[in-house]
UniProtKB/TrEMBL annotation:
Keywords: Kinase, Membrane, Phosphoprotein, Transferase, Transmembrane, Transmembrane helix, Two-component regulatory system
Stored SMART domains: HAMP (SM00304), HATPase_c (SM00387), HisKA (SM00388)
Ranges for domain HAMP: 188-241
PANTHER family: SENSOR HISTIDINE KINASE TRCS, SENSOR HISTIDINE KINASE YKOH
InterPro entries on file: HAMP_dom (IPR003660), HATPase_C_sf (IPR036890), HATPase_dom (IPR003594), His_kinase_dom (IPR005467), HisK_dim/P_dom (IPR003661), HisK_dim/P_sf (IPR036097), Sig_transdc_His_kin-like_C (IPR004358), TCS_sensor_his_kinase (IPR050428)
Identification of the protein by name: histidine kinase
Pfam family, one: HisKA
Histidine kinase domain boundaries: 249-465
Compartment annotation: Membrane
Reaction catalyzed: ATP + protein L-histidine = ADP + protein N-phospho-L-histidine
GO cellular component: plasma membrane
């Protein structure tokens, strides 16, 4: 298949050929009409002149003015016209000397011409050695109708048209050559820039995603294309970086409990122990297994959400019922940490989401709030309603989150400095999972610090009207 560059040039030339051909035919037709009209006008002038002479001298014998009188004045009058006068029966009454013994053909519809006083133009292709153009004009002379016929050669007309045709062909070929040359040069220049972009793009892979395509320096379509491709490379690089970091963090989070699990099992098998010691070791191993199971389940949910497979079937649910059930379930864990969870009075809110999704988001937010609240602390759950959105807030009175860490708390496996220094349990997936679920249902989670201390996580989502 032809290259796009070749197809573009050929298409361009085809359009130019069609345009020039159409213009050439139109110009040729107009020139032909103009030349023929000029000849017809010249013949008609001669015919009218002869008719005027015959009409002004009705008693004189018919005589044609086909020769110049012996005048000293300069005259450009044409004497190469063939002139003939015939009566109503087609009999020749007079003719110019240049006709010799030849007669101009008489029109077949003489009666119609005399009746309508119609002047007729016709072309004689087989008269003499050259094609001839003839005009026949009826006049009345002493109540005797006669026809004045004037003919002229079409040789000059055909010569003009032939020269014009040759000129049109030469101009068309010249224009095509010029247009083809200019088009080829411009196309080569434009596609050379594209080929440079393609060659550079072919050398960019996952190992050198930091490289970018060279910008041509112009703000035209090619410049916009390069900007768009570079922006796409930026997004791809960020995605690869997130994927690399995610893989590294996942490997680390899975390796740590597996290492601890293996170490405890190896220590337990070095010598015989009491049943209570075995029970303690097995309980510790069970805790590590549960932590591994939770991490794997959250990773699977995130992977399915990334693939668009975990949004869940939506339904019209009462947010008040979900808040009440989730707060009641979390009270036991909060009580062990001497933290109180309080659901403040809230309006009735109905939303179109999956029940399990809302429950998981609220559970993760409450779990974080309880873990980071000091003993005797308090976690508040509030609900505010605007015109078309609802905002579910979870507030704690813990240490809060530093400003420079707030932009990263929703990243996968990210754990803030407070979580690391206090050795708070968790893998850093809860907030990332909650944010992904919220975005999948048309909402989002944002975070801020309380003026009095602590953090506020706000889950905003659309209402059902």
């Amino acid at each position: 298949m032809l290259k796009f560059r070749t197809r573009l040039i050929l298409s361009h030339l085809a359009v130019i050929v069609v345009i020039l051909t159409s213009v050439g035919f139109a110009a040729y037709w107009m020139l032909s009409r103009a030349v023929y009209n000029q000849l017809d006008a010249a013949l008609l002038v001669v015919a009218e002149t002869e008719a005027a002479v015959l009409s002004s001298s009705p008693y004189r014998a018919i005589k044609l003015n086909d020769t110049l009188s012996g005048s000293d004045r300069l005259s450009f009058a044409r004497i190469d016209r063939l002139i003939q006068v015939v009566d109503s029966e087609g009999k020749v009454l007079a003719q110019s000397a240049n006709l010799g013994n030849t007669q101009l053909p008489v029109p077949a519809n003489l009666s119609a011409m005399f009746a309508n006083s119609e002047t007729v133009f016709e072309t004689l292709f087989s008269f003499g050695d050259e094609p001839v153009r003839m005009v026949s004009m009826p006049i009345d002379r002493l109540d005797t109708p006669v026809i004045v016929q004037v003919a002229g050669s079409l040789d000059d007309v055909h010569n003009v048209l032939n020269v014009a045709s040759l000129l049109f062909v030469m101009m068309t070929l010249g224009l095509l050559t010029a247009v083809a040359g200019v088009g080829l040069s411009l196309t080569r220049k434009a596609f050379q820039a594209i080929e440079n972009i393609v060659q550079r793009a072919q050398h960019i892979n996952e190992a050198n995603l930091n490289e970018r395509l060279p910008h041509p320096g112009s703000r035209d379509e090619i410049g916009n294309l390069v900007d768009t491709l570079n922006e796409m490379l930026d997004r791809i690089e960020r995605s690869f970086e997130v994927q690399r970091r995610f893989t590294a963090d996942a490997s680390h989070e899975l390796r740590s409990p597996l290492s601890r699990l293996r170490t405890e099992l190896e220590i337990s098998l070095r010598r015989s122990r009491d049943p209570s010691e075995y029970h303690e070791t097995l309980q510790s191993c069970m805790d590590e297994v549960e932590r591994l199971t939770l991490i794997v389940e959250e990773l699977l949910v995130l992977a399915r959400m990334d693939a668009g497979l975990e949004r869940g079937s939506t339904e019209t649910v009462s947010l008040n019922a979900i808040v009440e059930a989730t707060v009641k379930r979390m009270q036991s864990m909060a009580g062990k940490r001497d933290v109180q969870i309080i659901a403040e009075p809230m309006p009735q809110v109905v939303t179109n989401m999956a029940y399990g999704s809302v429950d998981l988001i609220l559970t993760n937010l409450l779990d974080n709030a309880v873990k980071f609240s000091p003993p005797g602390g308090r976690v508040s759950v509030r609900l505010a309603v605007t015109e078309n959105k609802a905002a579910l807030s979870v507030c704690d009175n813990g240490p809060g989150i530093d400003q420079d860490e707030q932009q990263r708390i929703f990243e996968r496996f990210y754990r803030g400095s407070v979580a690391s220094t206090r050795h708070v349990a968790g893998a850093g997936l809860g907030l990332a999972l909650s944010q992904a679920i919220a975005c999948g249902h048309g909402g989002y989670i944002e975070m801020t610090n309380n003026d009095e201390g602590g953090s506020v996580f706000i889950f905003k989502f659309p209402l059902v009207r």
